[in-house]
Protein backbone atom coordinates (compact mmCIF):
# COMPACT_ATOMS: atom_id res chain seq x y z
CA UNK A 1 0.00 0.00 0.00
CA UNK A 2 1.21 3.45 -0.71
CA UNK A 3 1.82 5.64 2.32
CA UNK A 4 -0.27 8.30 0.61
CA UNK A 5 -3.46 6.24 0.71
CA UNK A 6 -3.24 5.71 4.46
CA UNK A 7 -2.07 9.25 5.12
CA UNK A 8 -4.90 10.83 3.17
CA UNK A 9 -7.68 8.52 4.35
CA UNK A 10 -10.34 10.31 6.31
CA UNK A 11 -12.00 6.99 7.15
CA UNK A 12 -10.70 3.45 7.57
CA UNK A 13 -12.72 0.26 7.74
CA UNK A 14 -11.23 -2.73 9.59
CA UNK A 15 -13.17 -5.97 9.61
CA UNK A 16 -12.79 -9.72 9.56
CA UNK A 17 -14.99 -12.77 9.13
CA UNK A 18 -14.39 -16.27 10.48
CA UNK A 19 -15.55 -18.50 7.63
CA UNK A 20 -16.65 -22.11 8.00
CA UNK A 21 -13.79 -23.36 5.81
CA UNK A 22 -12.22 -23.34 2.35
CA UNK A 23 -15.51 -24.22 0.64
CA UNK A 24 -17.02 -21.02 2.02
CA UNK A 25 -14.11 -19.11 0.48
CA UNK A 26 -14.88 -20.70 -2.90
CA UNK A 27 -18.54 -19.70 -2.57
CA UNK A 28 -17.43 -16.20 -1.52
CA UNK A 29 -15.08 -15.58 -4.48
CA UNK A 30 -17.61 -14.46 -7.17
CA UNK A 31 -19.42 -12.07 -4.82
CA UNK A 32 -16.14 -10.75 -3.40
CA UNK A 33 -14.81 -9.95 -6.89
CA UNK A 34 -18.02 -8.04 -7.75
CA UNK A 35 -17.79 -6.18 -4.44
CA UNK A 36 -14.16 -5.15 -5.05
CA UNK A 37 -14.97 -3.92 -8.57
CA UNK A 38 -17.80 -1.82 -7.14
CA UNK A 39 -15.65 -0.49 -4.30
CA UNK A 40 -12.87 0.61 -6.66
CA UNK A 41 -15.40 2.59 -8.74
CA UNK A 42 -16.79 4.47 -5.74
CA UNK A 43 -15.95 8.15 -5.28
CA UNK A 44 -13.53 8.52 -2.38
CA UNK A 45 -12.09 5.00 -2.54
CA UNK A 46 -8.33 5.09 -1.93
CA UNK A 47 -7.08 1.56 -1.27
CA UNK A 48 -7.80 -1.76 0.41
CA UNK A 49 -5.92 -4.78 1.73
CA UNK A 50 -7.02 -8.28 2.66
CA UNK A 51 -5.41 -10.19 5.50
CA UNK A 52 -5.57 -13.79 6.75
CA UNK A 53 -5.84 -15.14 10.28
CA UNK A 54 -5.72 -18.94 10.77
CA UNK A 55 -7.60 -21.09 10.47
CA UNK A 56 -10.32 -19.59 8.25
CA UNK A 57 -10.60 -15.84 8.88
CA UNK A 58 -10.20 -13.20 6.20
CA UNK A 59 -10.17 -9.51 6.97
CA UNK A 60 -10.26 -6.26 5.06
CA UNK A 61 -8.73 -2.84 5.60
CA UNK A 62 -10.48 -0.23 3.47
CA UNK A 63 -9.26 3.35 3.06
CA UNK A 64 -11.63 6.12 1.94
CA UNK A 65 -11.29 9.90 1.65
CA UNK A 66 -14.22 10.57 3.99
CA UNK A 67 -16.55 8.70 6.29
CA UNK A 68 -19.41 9.66 3.97
CA UNK A 69 -17.58 7.94 1.09
CA UNK A 70 -17.11 4.80 3.18
CA UNK A 71 -20.76 4.75 4.27
CA UNK A 72 -21.95 5.35 0.70
CA UNK A 73 -20.05 2.21 -0.31
CA UNK A 74 -21.45 0.26 2.67
CA UNK A 75 -24.98 1.00 1.42
CA UNK A 76 -24.42 -0.34 -2.11
CA UNK A 77 -26.36 -3.38 -3.27
CA UNK A 78 -23.20 -5.45 -3.68
CA UNK A 79 -22.11 -4.81 -0.10
CA UNK A 80 -25.57 -5.49 1.34
CA UNK A 81 -25.83 -8.71 -0.67
CA UNK A 82 -22.46 -9.92 0.59
CA UNK A 83 -23.31 -9.05 4.20
CA UNK A 84 -26.49 -11.13 3.92
CA UNK A 85 -24.44 -14.02 2.55
CA UNK A 86 -21.93 -13.73 5.42
CA UNK A 87 -24.73 -13.85 8.00
CA UNK A 88 -25.66 -17.36 6.90
CA UNK A 89 -24.35 -19.95 9.38
CA UNK A 90 -23.48 -22.09 6.37
CA UNK A 91 -20.79 -19.58 5.39
CA UNK A 92 -19.45 -17.86 8.51
CA UNK A 93 -19.30 -18.26 12.28
CA UNK A 94 -18.45 -14.75 13.43
CA UNK A 95 -16.73 -11.50 12.67
CA UNK A 96 -16.28 -7.88 13.56
CA UNK A 97 -16.10 -4.43 12.01
CA UNK A 98 -14.56 -1.18 13.17
CA UNK A 99 -14.75 2.19 11.46
CA UNK A 100 -12.18 4.84 12.25
CA UNK A 101 -12.25 8.43 11.06
CA UNK A 102 -9.71 11.23 11.18
CA UNK A 103 -10.53 14.43 12.99
CA UNK A 104 -9.50 17.75 11.41
CA UNK A 105 -5.96 18.79 12.34
CA UNK A 106 -5.73 22.33 10.97
CA UNK A 107 -3.26 21.06 8.38
CA UNK A 108 -0.82 19.44 10.82
CA UNK A 109 -1.02 15.61 10.89
CA UNK A 110 -1.34 14.10 14.38
CA UNK A 111 2.03 12.31 14.09
CA UNK A 112 3.78 15.59 13.31
CA UNK A 113 2.09 17.29 16.25
CA UNK A 114 3.61 14.71 18.59
CA UNK A 115 7.08 14.96 17.06
CA UNK A 116 7.18 18.75 16.90
CA UNK A 117 5.35 19.36 20.13
CA UNK A 118 2.71 21.48 18.39
CA UNK A 119 -0.04 19.52 20.12
CA UNK A 120 1.29 20.38 23.60
CA UNK A 121 0.69 24.13 23.90
The count of domains is 1
Q: Do you know the CATH architecture?
A: 2-Layer Sandwich
Strand arrangement, largest sheet? 2-3-1-4
Regions with little confidence, pLDDT below 50 for 5+ residues: none
CATH fold description: Alpha-Beta Plaits
Helix share, percent:
40-55%
Roughly how many Å apart are the termini? 34 Å
CATH top level class name: Alpha Beta
Number of H/I helices: 5
Q: Into which percentage range does the β-strand content fall? A: 25-35%
| Class from secondary-structure proportions | alpha+beta
How is the main sheet built? 4 strands, antiparallel
Mean pLDDT: 87
Molecular shape? elongated
CA radius of gyration is: 17 Å
Tally of DSSP β-strands = 4
How do the SSEs run, as a string of H and E?
A: HEHEEHHEH
Brief digest:
The protein has 121 residues and is an alpha+beta fold. The chain has helices at residues 3-8, 22-41, 67-74, 77-86, 110-116; strands at residues 11-19, 45-53, 57-64, 92-101. The protein has a four-stranded antiparallel β-sheet.
Q: Secondary structure elements and their pairing?
A:
Layout: H1 3-8, E1 11-19, H2 22-41, E2 45-53, E3 57-64, H3 67-74, H4 77-86, E4 92-101, H5 110-116
Antiparallel strand pairs: 1-3, 1-4, 2-3
Give an overview of the whole structure:
With 121 residues, the chain is an alpha+beta fold. The protein has one domain (9-116): Alpha-Beta Plaits, CATH 3.30.70.100. Helix content is 42%, strand content 30%. It has helices at residues 3-8, 22-41, 67-74, 77-86, 110-116; strands at residues 11-19, 45-53, 57-64, 92-101. It has a 4-stranded antiparallel beta sheet. Helix 2 runs antiparallel to helix 4. The longest helix has 20 residues, at 22-41. The protein is elongated and about 50 Å long. The protein starts with a helix and ends in a 5-residue tail after the last helix.
